[in-house]
Amino acid sequence: MEDNFQSAYQEEEDRLNSALTEIDTVLERLRGIPVYTGHDYTEQALEASREQRRKDLAKLRQEPYFGRLDFQGKDEEERKALYIGKIGVDREQVSDRPLVIDWRAPVASLFYSFTGGTEPASYEAPEGLIEGLVYLKRNVVIRKQILERVADTYNRDSDGPAVSDEFLVYRLGENKDNRLRDIVSTIQEEQDKIIRAAKNTALIIQGVAGSGKTTVALHRLAFLLYQYKEQVSAEKMIIFAPNRMFLDYISDVLPELGVGNIAQSTFPDWAADVLGVVLPEQNAAETMSHWFEREGGMPEITGETPGRFKGSTALMGIIDSAIGLLENGTVPEGDFSPWDGSVLRRSMILRWHNEEYAPYPPAKRKERVMARIHRWIEMELKKSPSAAALKDRKKKSAAREKAYSAKWPKYDPLTIYKQIFRAVKVPEDWPAEAPERIPQGVLVSTVKDLKKGILHEEDLPPLLYIHYLLNGSEGGSRFDHIVIDEAQDFSPFQIAVLDLYVKGHSFTILGDLSQGIHAYKGVHAWEEMQTLFAPEQTAYHALTRSYRSTMEIIEFANGILSAGVGSSLLAVPVFRSGNPVRLIAYGQPLPGPAAGGDSRLQAVRTALASLSGREYRTVAVLTRSLREAAELYTELAGQFEDIHLIDGSMTEYRGGLSVLPVYLSKGLEFDAVILADADSDHYGSAAWDAKLMYVGCTRALHELWMLHGEGLPPYLQNGEGTVQGWPE
User: How high is the pLDDT of residue 598?
Assistant: First the structure.
């Protein structure tokens, strides 16, 4: 066995040295070609291709590939050793195989889908289904041109067992820094199916905590750009993430995969930019405070909860009715006369509006009709009998043209939105029953805010919808693909509006209902989104394997979901064992010099000192509220240097030691987590409280410590698989 390993290692080291020599030779030749700076289009294209190849090869030198697949097609005479990497590179000389195969290439799918066995394997290629035999599947780790690890996950010629999870567990055991990393070397079969799914599909992914759903979605973008390079572009893709700090956290993944220029935003930022409005930062903070900082837990969610009603498609129907009324009474009554003696009949204006410009949305139609009227005026002015008459007519026509334009409805989304809620005066022909279709509580609170000029996040989807109905997708600019992360916090209305801004219902919608702590605005079941699309336009995938945390942490978190939520969306852990979850009461004697103390602050200090003293790059203290996080941070900052308070206003995740409220931790992950105040004074018995605690527990990769006062919530009282007290 040892001899086989040494032989494999030597073989791969020789191959790596050979590949590096070839890469360096080609790179040196390309760098020796003078950069073309002229204006010839063909030469410019050739230079762009050379420059891209220079960049690819320079990047490839550090980590040329991560996997090897020996495959023999059924019509081929011999098996071929195929090396798979982040970037595909052809050899300089004509060969039957590239130097490195791009991980997105059809044959590379075998590296992810083949899990062993002696039966033939197959993959889909442009020319059809390709069948053959896999002889070897090997993972390699190369860092800075040094071969660090070789692991065979399948060998047809060996009597030894397959070790499909050994390499995965090795990579998962690595510590985290302040950025999410690509998983291209460890993509699993179920993840690969999602990554390679057809483009024009609203793909909904339910993924348990730690299932890699965010990373899978980012890899899917890279695959779509590779597979549909003639149909899509990075500039017409966008990622919607829950907050700006999370965008910073995921910012390195796409560049590592060789993909750039994909827009990344939060929905409120993007929507406010489209609408040209400003959404004050304090509004989001006030919303979070209302739902997460109140004593006694989360307020009750009902049909009169503004986020739920305004996020429903019921409001879309009300808006449709209002816009329809506007269109019916669009063209002002009477003929248009720019000056006495000259008349443009209303019948002609109606013909322009209702026939010639009928395909345009209302605001654009008005623009074109008014432009047509202006051209008609200019033609009439040319008939003026004298210079004096021309001057007089110009003056009168300008005033009357402006007055006539003012008679048209005001195609402003905010004005129409205010009219729907009766926050301003409405046109005489608007139906009186419209407000009755809006819950009274929503109507009263919205009118109050709109009269003060206050907009909330839940007002953006209806405003966007009005904007779209009035203007269409301006300039024909629609996205080729949209990724929505933490989609359980999106409303059906948001998805419906975004569908108007994307081609072919091309979505990757991912989230976890078990982490639905923003139930006051998000969906409670994926059916709320699936029903927005025709059955053939959507697909659903469930990712149940969790790769983030140890078995002990996942099983502990599953216990919270089962007992506190009654959920069946439980994670299946990868076999990676670690330390048990610790339950530590504040009254227990502290270890070391502080023994005998029982203070909450001293307990948090001791826990943080213990975990941060280990080989962990990221450690977090999670509190129930922002106020408690700020107070703890102030106390801890004097003892710990690399410590940061995350309060929702940050745009950058810095790693190191962090203190933050549990509700702001969603989407992040840390080597070790200290969940402070895991007691019944801070977490009630409601399902929402259990979900909140579940979110906090599943942020931990390697260690989870639960500090608590007297009394535990019911879903923690069992405590199976935990260790009580401080480590020895």
Answer: 47
Which range is least confidently modeled, 31-40, 312-321, 423-432, 550-559? 423-432
Has 209 been labeled as part of a binding site?
yes
- Range 188-329+409-547 has CATH code 3.40.50.300: yes
Give the three-class secondary structure for 311. Answer: coil
Query: 653 and 660 in contact (C-beta within 8 Å)?
Result: no
Q: Side chain identity at 673, as an amino acid letter?
A: V
Helix, strand, coil percentages for the chain (3-state, nearest 5): 45, 15, 40
Angle at the Cα of 472 from the Cα atoms of 464 and 357, rounded to 5 degrees:
145
| Rounded distance between C-alpha atoms, residue 598 and residue 394, angstroms | 87
- The response to whether 607 counts as a known ligand-binding position is no
* Beta-strand runs (E) in 537-579: 538-543, 545-546, 572-573
Count other C-beta atoms under 10 Å from residue 529's C-beta.
25
Nearest to 709 by CA among 636, 624, 635: 624
d(CA 520, CA 293): 14
Enter the tokens of residue 70. Answer: 């020996």
Which pair of tokens denotes residue 518?
């923003």
Compute the C-alpha angle 674/676/682, nearest 5°.
Answer: 145
Contact 557, 726 (CB under 8 A): no
Q: What is the mean pLDDT of the chain?
A: 89
* CATH code reported for the domain at 551-724: 3.40.50.300
Amino acid letter, 304: E
Q: What's the DSSP call for residue 593?
A: G
Residues 6+ apart with CB under 8 A from 648: 243, 284, 285, 288, 626, 664
Q: State pLDDT tens for residues 193-242.
A: 999 998 999 999 999 998 989 889 988 999 999 899 889 999 999 999 98
**Per the annotation, does 709 bind a ligand?**
no
Q: Which of 489, 496, 493, 495 is nearest to 519 (CA)?
A: 489
Euclidean distance between CA atoms 40 and 432, whole angstroms = 66
366 has binding-site annotation? no
Q: Determine whether the annotation assigns residue 210 to a binding site.
A: yes
Domain with CATH 3.40.50.300 in the chain: 188-329+409-547, 551-724
Q: Is the pLDDT of residue 2 over 60?
A: no
Q: Does 213 count as an annotated binding residue?
A: yes
Q: Per the annotation, does 208 bind a ligand?
A: yes
**Which residue's structure tokens are 């996997």?**
67
Rounded Cα–Cα distance for residues 37 and 214 (Å): 40
Supply the pTM of this predicted model. Answer: 0.87
> Which pair of tokens denotes residue 392?
């007089």
Express each pLDDT in 96-135 by its tens digit: 789 999 999 999 999 988 988 889 999 998 889 999 999 9
Closest CA to 460 of 279, 283, 247: 279
SS3 for 691-725, per residue? HHHHHHHCCEEEEEEEEECCCCCHHHCCCCCEEEC
First to last CA, the chain: 39
Does residue 178 sit in helix, strand or coil? coil
